[in-house]
Amino acid sequence: MAKKPKSRLILTVLAAVVVAALLIFAFWPSPTMVDIGTVTRGPMQVTINEEGRTRVHDTYVVSAPVNGQLLRIEAEPGDLVSAGMVIARMTPTPLDARSRAQAQAAIASAQASIRAARESVEQARSDKRLADAELAREQELWELQSTSRAALDLAIRDAENAQAALESARSSVAMREAELAEARARLLGSAPGASGGAIALRAPASGRILEVMQESAATLAAGTPIVEIGDVGSDLEVLVELLSTDAVTVSLGDPVLVEGWGGDTPLRGVVVQLEPQGFTKVSALGVEEQRVNAIVRLSADQPTNAGLGSGFRVEARIIVWQDRDALVVPASALFRDQGHWAVLAVDGGEAVLRRVTIGRNNGTQAQVLEGLEEGAQVVLYPSSDLADGEAVEQREVG
Predict the structure, then answer these.
(1) What is the spatial distance between Cα 9 and Cα 23, in angstroms, rounded to a whole number?
(2) pLDDT digits (tens, 9 = 90+) for 288-307
(3) What is the DSSP letter of 274?
(4) How many angstroms separate the CA atoms of 238 and 249, rounded?
(5) How far apart are CA 255 and CA 242, in angstroms?
(6) Are residues 193 and 89 part of one domain?
(7) What are the residues whose beta carbons fall under 8 Å from the beta carbon of 139, sequence distance 6 or more?
(8) Residues of the chain above pLDDT 90, percent
(9) Cα(304)–Cα(306) distance, rounded to whole angstroms?
(10) Is residue 187 over pLDDT 80?
């Protein structure tokens, strides 16, 4: 009879222990489920993203050289033309003595402009030879690992800019020659009473017809624009309207990726000009913004942009900073702690508060200068309720 109460006591104690264990398990705090990211090392870029539009760098407007009757133009926008090709004809109105003297003075001025433009071509050609020689030296040093990548990129940029300057100087010569031809055309039929046959208006440069301003036959005054010509194949540039606060961070020579133009791969370019004068523009939300025009020259060593013309919308990403071997942490892991940047690192299943020193931040990634090492795990989108030392666990995806 003594064994029965003893066994009952043992069962009661065991039941109490099981109940206590179940209560402890039920009320024991479980790890907080969080998203976890990793500190990695790799390439990082800081870009300024804005919409832009394409335009032809050097456009040529063929205008009426004299007062007269324009004959109907058969050319249409998009037609290919070559330098010297006849694109329109007009019958001049006879000039008086004063107009004739002005036309002769215009011829002399145009001849002087041609001489100056040809001297500019020689200067640009000399600068191009110097830039090519410097690029060749930097490439040899790069192969010998005796120079930096930045120096090589700078030499490449200088060579591209020199080539663009040479092309611009050559285009200037063609423009001045067209002005001379226009000035000479004004003398046709200049004598009072002279009948004067139809004069031919020729294309000053090769390219495509961008716009026909006067298609039908009409009586025009001298200087009236008739046709606009440009080379959309190799002379395209991108005009980007930057916020003035972003423009101050952009430098000449910064690389640019042009996306959203309709092709499969981005087009490469470089910032060649930042206009010094800003302007006010009203955004779609009705907010006044100060904008600055940035000009991006597309690289000449890429394939012709088939289908991309003047006035097309594109998206430009200007790279203002980049590092090919940066220590980066997801920007979503960062928060402010007493005026300092901090993260919650995952160490042994617990969230540990760590202050970090951050360099560049592009909104997706942040450059880590101090406080974290490669491979460290951090809590993404940390909640304000998550405390230092609290147990955490990776949230299951899906």
Answers:
(1) 21
(2) 999 999 999 988 766 655 57
(3) E
(4) 18
(5) 15
(6) yes
(7) 152, 155
(8) 36
(9) 6
(10) no
- For residue 4, the model assigns a pLDDT of 59
Alpha helices by DSSP H, listed for the chain, are 3-27, 97-143, 149-185, 244-247
- Residue 285 is encoded by which pair of tokens? 């939300």
Helix, strand or coil for residue 279? Answer: strand
Residue numbers of the domain that contains 363: 32-44+325-394
Report yes or no: 268 and 319 within 8 Å, Cβ to Cβ. Answer: no
How does pLDDT run across 83-134, given as a tens digit for each residue? 889 999 888 776 666 767 777 788 888 888 888 888 888 888 888 888 888 8
CA atoms of 303 and 261, how far apart (whole Å): 14
- Cα dihedral angle (174, 180, 185, 190), rounded to 10 degrees? 170
Q: Is residue 59 part of a domain?
A: no
Note whether 342 and 388 are same-domain residues.
yes
**359 in the same domain as 283:** no
Per the listing, tokens 């019958």 go with: 91
Same structural domain, 208 and 77: yes
Q: Round to whole Å and give the CA distance between 38 and 368.
A: 12
Number of Cβ within 10 Å of residue 181's Cβ equals 18
Nearest CA-CA partner of 333 in 40, 43, 39, 41: 39
Instruction: Give the tokens for residue 193.
Output: 């009473």
Sheet order of strands, 207-212 included: 59-63, 225-230, 207-212, 80-81
Residue 317 pairs in a beta bridge with 49, 257
Rounded CA separation 355/378 (Å):
12
Q: 3-class SS at 355?
A: strand
Q: In sequence order, which residues have a C-beta less than 8 Å from that of residue 176 and are 6 or more positions away?
A: 110, 113, 114, 117
Q: Are residues 221 and 168 in the same domain?
A: no
Number of separate domains in the chain: 4
Residue with tokens 């145009």: 110
Give the neighbor-by-neighbor strand order of the sheet with 218-220.
199-202, 86-92, 68-70, 218-220
How many angstroms separate the CA atoms of 254 and 317, rounded?
10
Supply the CATH number for residue 221's domain: 2.40.50.100
Judge whether residue 192 has pLDDT over 60. no
Name the amino acid, one letter, at 122.
E
Domain assignment of residue 23, yes or no: no
Q: Does position 382 have pLDDT exceeding 50, yes or no?
A: yes
